[in-house]
Each structure stands twice: as structure tokens, then as C-alpha cells.
């Protein structure tokens, strides 16, 4: 005996929905977790990115003197910019509340370091001790003044002058420059 064939454009859509014409319930929206976006492990990987986490990273990026965040200068990646977007999404889906920090960030903080290398520096961004971003920043050649007070291009100098750093609160951001 032959099996009846489904009709095109007929009621096969209703059969697929399985609820007599009612649309299926929308899937629960999942938050963006650290492990979804960054190569992190352990407790941090399973935690949703929260608004205070993003604010702490933004503060750390902004507090390191001379850091030019690649994404904001026309390309590259900014951990803070991504975290701000993820936190806004997570808040919209109800996974985190306004002003909330993740447990890992509340305990271990956020920091940004700079390490001098010939011709520039390497900037590394951390959340709860795990790297979430790293990029190189080139140093512009220093300007020298001639005897008449005019600027003259020089080839002396190098990366990493001085020390800069900041620490922000318990949910914390820390920024440091290492020469």
C-alpha cells in the first residue's frame, strides 16, 4: 500500500509546528559568557559578561597612558568595547542586572599591562588573571629640537618612558606599564 504524500503549501507547516497552528515557544536566549568570546578557562568561562566588568575594563584601558585601543583607532579589537556590547545584550535578555559584576571579576579584578619592546610596546588585557586581549602599539619617533628651538626628527629614544598605572575599586581595574 502506498503512503499518502504531504501536500505542498498545505498543512505541513502546521504539522511541523506540532501545536495545532500555534507557533513554538521562543527559545530561552542564552547570555554571552566569557568562554564564548575569549580563550579563558575555569570559573570565568561560564560566567556572563556583566556591566561592571565592562566598565572596569574600559576604565583600565583608559587609565594606561598612551594606550591606543585598536578598534577605536580604525581597526583591531578592544576587549572593553566587546564587553560593553555583550553586557548590554546580557542585560537585555535578563541574565545580568544593571551595575552587576561577575563573581570572578569581583574577586580578581581586571587589569591592563604594557611591556616595552623595541619600537613600541605590547598591551595585554586581563580579566580575573586570564588574558582576553593583546596587541602591539608602535611608538612614534621622538621629536628633537635643534639649537634654534625648531623640531628636528631624531632617531634616538625608544619605547616605554616612565611608569603609569591605575587601580579601580573592588570589581576592579588595574593598569600598569612595565619598562
UniProtKB/TrEMBL annotation:
Location of region: Disordered: 1-71, 139-179
Family: Belongs to the LEA type SMP family.
Protein name: SMP domain-containing protein
Keyword Endoplasmic reticulum annotated: no
Domain SMP: 32-92
UniProt keyword terms in alphabetical order: Repeat
Cited InterPro entries: LEA_SMP, LEA_SMP_dom
Top-rank taxon, per record: Eukaryota
Compositional bias segments (type: Gly residues): 155-167
Stretches with biased composition (Low complexity): 13-29
Species the sequence originates in: Miscanthus lutarioriparius
Amino acid at each position: 500500500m502506498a503512503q499518502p504524500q504531504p501536500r505542498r503549501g498545505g498543512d505541513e507547516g502546521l504539522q511541523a509546528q506540532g501545536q495545532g497552528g500555534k507557533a513554538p515557544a521562543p527559545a530561552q536566549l542564552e547570555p554571552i559568557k566569557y568562554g564564548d568570546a575569549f580563550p579563558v578557562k575555569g570559573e570565568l568561562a561560564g560566567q556572563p559578561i556583566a556591566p561592571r566588568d565592562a566598565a572596569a575594563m574600559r576604565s583600565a584601558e583608559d587609565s594606561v597612558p598612551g594606550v591606543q585601543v585598536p578598534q577605536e583607532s580604525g581597526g583591531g579589537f578592544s576587549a572593553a568595547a566587546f564587553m560593553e556590547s555583550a553586557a548590554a545584550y546580557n542585560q537585555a535578555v535578563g541574565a545580568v542586572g544593571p551595575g552587576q559584576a561577575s563573581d570572578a571579576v569581583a574577586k580578581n579584578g581586571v587589569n591592563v599591562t604594557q611591556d616595552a619592546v623595541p619600537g613600541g610596546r605590547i598591551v595585554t588585557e586581563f580579566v580575573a588573571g586570564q588574558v582576553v586581549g593583546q596587541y602591539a602599539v608602535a611608538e612614534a619617533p621622538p621629536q628633537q629640537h635643534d639649537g634654534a628651538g625648531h623640531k628636528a626628527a631624531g632617531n634616538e629614544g625608544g619605547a616605554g618612558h616612565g611608569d603609569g598605572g591605575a587601580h579601580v575599586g573592588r570589581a576592579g581595574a588595574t593598569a600598569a606599564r612595565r619598562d
